[in-house]
Amino acid sequence: MKIAGVVCIGLIVIGLAIAVHAYMTVVYPIDRAIGYLNQAQTAGSPSTMANYMEQARDIIEERQGNPCWILPTESTNWDIIKANLDECIQYARNMAS
Fold it and tell me: Each residue of 18-33: pLDDT tens digit?
């Protein structure tokens, strides 16, 4: 009975470690990028807006393809999101100059 309890606790600890690692490597960076984009929405100048959008773009740089494999759409495709963000950054830079 003691061995089963130790195994059960071990599995729970391993599961928690996997969940924390997945959050830190997948969810948290995306949440940070969303935060930068929210800051860009409330920025007082086009150059500040572009800076926030560039920080968000840097975070999602290595992501590609469509993570939504069940019902993929253009709004969940990383490549399209990055292209749209690049256009917004360029537009903001043009407005600032």
Answer: 999 999 988 899 999 9
- Cα–Cα distance, 25 to 29 (Å, whole number): 7
Q: Tokens representing 23?
A: 């959050």
Q: Model pTM?
A: 0.80
Residue 81 contacts residue 60 (beta carbons within 8 Å) = yes
Task: Using alpha carbons, select from 69, 87, 67 the residue that is nearest to residue 78.
Answer: 67
Class of residue 3 by CB neighbours under 10 A (exposed 0-12, middle 13-18, buried 19+): exposed
C-alpha span between 81 and 47 (Å, rounded): 20
